[in-house]
Amino acid sequence: MSAYLSYLYEQLREKEEQLEKLQAAKPKLEEIQQEFKAKIKMCKEPELTADTYNGEHATDFDKIRTELKEEYKDMYDGQLEDILNQIQGKIEELKDQIKNLKDQIAAEEARLAAEAKAEAEATAKAN
Questions:
Q1: 73 CB contacts (<8 Å, ≥6 apart)?
Q2: How far is CA 79 from CA 55, 72, 115, in A?
Q3: Which end of the chain is less enclosed by CB atoms within 10 A, N or C?
Q4: Which residues form a coiled coil (predicted)?
Q5: Domains in the chain: how many in total?
Q6: Gap between the Cα atoms of 102 and 6, Å rounded
Q7: Is the pTM above the cut of 0.70?
Q8: Residue 51 — φ and ψ, nearest 5°?
């Protein structure tokens, strides 16, 4: 096996390992994103009414809870969504790289086989 072919196989192994890790991480992050979505209502619990809580502090507290809810929503709708999109982009990129490496490996193996055949024929003619 040529050094170049060994290099290609090593690159292929690394890319497949990276792909496997990303493909395993993506569903875990999607699950976390769903958990975030399901628990957003907790940002406004317990519900406060004019009978239970009022005045300047109640208004400030309610404003803080509203801001918290928006920040919380940004985490799963913005930040986590961006990360998931980046992961998907990297998965597609790795798939393309793996395909290219497999094509290079096939071409190199064909080249080596042709080279070996030519050497065998040359040796046979010399004898």
A1: 40
A2: 35, 10, 53
A3: C
A4: 5-39, 77-118
A5: 1
A6: 12
A7: yes
A8: -75, -30
